[in-house]
Amino acid sequence: MEPVWRYLIEWILTPYEAHMHGIRRVLYSGKTRYQQVDVVETYSFGKCLFLDGKLQSSEYDEYVYHEALVHPAMMTHPDPRRVLVIGGGEGATIREVLRYPSVERVVMVDLDKEVVDVCRRYMPEWSRGAFEDPRVELVIEEGRKFVRECGEEFDVVILDLTDPTPDSPSVYLYTREFYEMVKRRLGEEGVMVTQATSVRFSPKAFAMIRNTVAAVFPIARAYYTPVTSFLSLWGFVLGSLGRDPASINPDEIRSRLEKLTGELRYYDEVVHISMLHLPRYLRERLDEVREVATDENPAYMPP
Amino acid sequence: MEPVWRYLIEWILTPYEAHMHGIRRVLYSGKTRYQQVDVVETYSFGKCLFLDGKLQSSEYDEYVYHEALVHPAMMTHPDPRRVLVIGGGEGATIREVLRYPSVERVVMVDLDKEVVDVCRRYMPEWSRGAFEDPRVELVIEEGRKFVRECGEEFDVVILDLTDPTPDSPSVYLYTREFYEMVKRRLGEEGVMVTQATSVRFSPKAFAMIRNTVAAVFPIARAYYTPVTSFLSLWGFVLGSLGRDPASINPDEIRSRLEKLTGELRYYDEVVHISMLHLPRYLRERLDEVREVATDENPAYMPP
Amino acid sequence: MEPVWRYLIEWILTPYEAHMHGIRRVLYSGKTRYQQVDVVETYSFGKCLFLDGKLQSSEYDEYVYHEALVHPAMMTHPDPRRVLVIGGGEGATIREVLRYPSVERVVMVDLDKEVVDVCRRYMPEWSRGAFEDPRVELVIEEGRKFVRECGEEFDVVILDLTDPTPDSPSVYLYTREFYEMVKRRLGEEGVMVTQATSVRFSPKAFAMIRNTVAAVFPIARAYYTPVTSFLSLWGFVLGSLGRDPASINPDEIRSRLEKLTGELRYYDEVVHISMLHLPRYLRERLDEVREVATDENPAYMPP
Amino acid sequence: MEPVWRYLIEWILTPYEAHMHGIRRVLYSGKTRYQQVDVVETYSFGKCLFLDGKLQSSEYDEYVYHEALVHPAMMTHPDPRRVLVIGGGEGATIREVLRYPSVERVVMVDLDKEVVDVCRRYMPEWSRGAFEDPRVELVIEEGRKFVRECGEEFDVVILDLTDPTPDSPSVYLYTREFYEMVKRRLGEEGVMVTQATSVRFSPKAFAMIRNTVAAVFPIARAYYTPVTSFLSLWGFVLGSLGRDPASINPDEIRSRLEKLTGELRYYDEVVHISMLHLPRYLRERLDEVREVATDENPAYMPP
């Protein structure tokens, strides 16, 4: 057994709990204009991307997170052709989107070019060529600005953002004002999905995001999935102008899955239903929260 | 924010990864004849029981684990009246069993009287009076010996054991020989369920337990649920002489749940189906393993 | 190798550096009226006393600290008969004082009776019967109040206090006002010594204490010694109304040492000189600080 | 306060005790042919070099270690002109040697060219131009091989080696056979000094090295100094063919120090005496050990 001494310690509600990751190798460690970026090889989760000391995704289970983020929204739209992804610097979100033969155009907007470059160079297993796909346009810009100013229409908008921690600029990509901008960019039967923080560490933020999407979209669904490397059940919220993800026929999902490029490892028609079914303790926790996130009163992930 | 300095560090595949628990208060710390017992109040998971440094259950989510362990088996049996629980010193397993009005007799067999006493005294939130229920008989004995020697018949047998780590005596409560003894104690339509270690840390052990139950019982089902405080999806295996848990009518589950004493927080008819549905990556991982656990070649939880 | 999972993590200038102590056994863990008290058996330093998570003394090297605290002051006084100790709940400070055959009376004043009781019960190796010595009177009282109100005269006053961290009441036992009270209690050729925090973590506090003693006493000497379990060189300051510790004849020290009860393990006439000799880097660090600690502007140990 | 999440954890007698170093910046992290090299900026000790996870020297107190290693030997020789340094990749050992105006030639022999290059590039504060001094010759070679094969004569030989941990090749640079080779390279009044591991973690190794030097040299002296960043008192052993370091006149030291290039921060004539004076507890600990280290039975630093 090789000795271990380099660790990334992810503090959870500092300093009460932590996840210690033994580091086998440092692939990249540097500061971009926006954040500290570390790409390391851990013993337990393989290659990992940390931004400001917080695990963003791991070789071990990035597919759980990315499949859970992308496919419910794509399946909710009957025929997704134009997709906008905000964030998702690793390139795994667009990788999942590109599996759909119907997709003609993907615009990916990320603030931090250096993170995207580091991911392309040191974590090619995430994007697997997605950045080179001719359907993809990469835009380096602040996501809210892009949505506000772009005149284009999309079928699906996927918000793969960093968590709305108190100092983060992403706080304003989880508000009613922003979701209204997104809605204006959606075509008929358009669908939006956002990662919605941790069910465990920030149930209030998760609930507020759900409430906020529900205040803007006729149909809103909170769902969740366990992401082991995040130490938590992870939340997502989907808003739809057309179909309800909870009433899609499992046979439709099965049949569309068969036509995708490559094979999924996690998501399928049963997982689809499971994710949307919040057990009683989660429903109760969410229902305690009535607030809607606005630019004046945003949702924050503690601490 | 109160300063923290006392920690329980749960090493996962030592020393590559760890879960650091900040300790607010030590309620009990001592050595029994069999193991080191710590009952502590953590900041993140509330009161917790650690045996030999491994978290057994936490106030935060013990109900997820215990409901997932108990109810699928109880629901698989059409009319459970006599229940045997091996292990489960905290008293939460029998608490869940006692919710069923049909239950007439529960025998709980635990090796370590001191652990049971510590749990009754320092963790009454777990058992909530279950030990005082007149239907319960507590037997302090080695579980395998009890099963081998007792002449009684049970409807449901629940194995709430410590993990089969290399030095643990519980290794021999996960073998074909033992499951055959259990089977002989079951009545018609009898059901057995065992915790089956971590899907993440010990997928091989999980798979071997599934294979072993399948070698002994006509119907065997592996299922899983996320247990956040265990940092993992947790595995269970159910063996049945009668019904298949995967084909129970959701309406039956709903209607039986309504008649239970108290309300569940996690398990319901949709959760029942979700737990039994292993996603593709899990099915693949399990299907790689062909071995059956025997007394000669047991399943071990690494390391 | 026994597995380790219980740790006391001493944060040094939280959270930038820490000393992790693996715990073999918890002997006592509880909260007194004033502080959190943990007596534990560590793997590296044997039995240890922690107050509010900070190591106070360890079986491994408590004698280094206590001999360094007590003997330079006792040797500086030509004939110490009446000794006052403030703090020192472990009983090791009075143990060292009682070695001198000339000592007739020792008053030990400690604020926290419960700590003294815990030490007597769980750490008898420290006091080795000192509390039972008929020359000792134990007074449970706030030290500054005792010094202000007592009418008694002492030859040597030893301040074995907790560090002056920002919230600690001991802050006011490191000020000019307090040292003036102490001086009034001293007889001719009287000597006072105080622990003076870490040379490494709080050089400013060490320097201020030195300046403060120098503002009150005609002779003031800062000295230091490495205390391994404290991760630091440790500082002390001695104030004298009579002799200068730096000019005591080594032969006098040697000859007085021979008459002590029991044998010292660390202090001798060469150590006496070494401790008083601050190397250049220490002298420079101290000389940068000009401030004197007063009740209005006390010395604090960071953070 | 900037959040911290990257740590180097130095395990001391793994896993019983550790020193956690918060990392502000990773300057270099890579594997040479021989070892893992990390140059990091810590919060508490500034820039640090770690080899295989073990701190080699820190900006905070490298001068304490290097002055303690170099000057007692240089002062013991009456007129050091030719100096051999084995190890010392940081370049601080030769920096101290070059302060002596009498020095005409310094041969530095290090096994690992990549470490030397990393130190020159990322840690120029250590060598401060020493590698560029025309008196210095850098030889990349195994130290024992160099000493065995070189025909040159030296006045002082300084062994600045990594610790003799069980798998380390440096084990054979702490044996009688090796010291005899060194002795053959020394001129009249020649002096050899070696770092001699930790007084705390490996007192047996320290004692064996002392015994071994004493078996080869007419005069042998063990000495020590606290090195805070090493969490320990650190040991050294000096062997001399001529003068005894314990009987050098303090005035001679003082006067030679005045002629050195630059100013020392730690070593002076009083420190010289203090370092050579082992307190009783250390003498006792050393005197328990009778063994001499040989190629067949080397001294090891645990574990």
What does this 3D model show about the protein?
4 copies of one chain form a homotetramer. By secondary structure, chain A is of the alpha/beta class. The first copy, chain A, has 2 domains: 7-56, Roll (Spermidine Synthase, Chain: A, domain 2); 62-287, Rossmann fold (3-Layer(aba) Sandwich), CATH 3.40.50. In chain A, 30% of the residues lie in helices and 31% in strands. Chain A contains 10 helices and 12 strands. The first copy, chain A, is globular and about 55 Å long. The model of chain A has no long low-confidence stretch (mean pLDDT 95). The interface between A and B is large, with 39 and 39 residues.
Secondary-structure blueprint:
The structure is a homotetramer of 303-residue chains.
Chain A: E1 6-12, E2 17-31, E3 36-42, E4 46-51, E5 54-58, H1 62-76, E6 82-87, H2 92-97, E7 105-110, H3 113-122, H4 124-127, E8 136-140, H5 143-149, E9 154-160, H6 176-185, E10 186-198, H7 203-216, E11 219-227, E12 232-240, H8 250-258, H9 269-276, H10 280-287
Parallel strand pairs in A: 6-7, 6-9, 7-8, 9-10
Antiparallel strand pairs in A: 1-2, 2-3, 3-4, 4-5, 10-12, 11-12
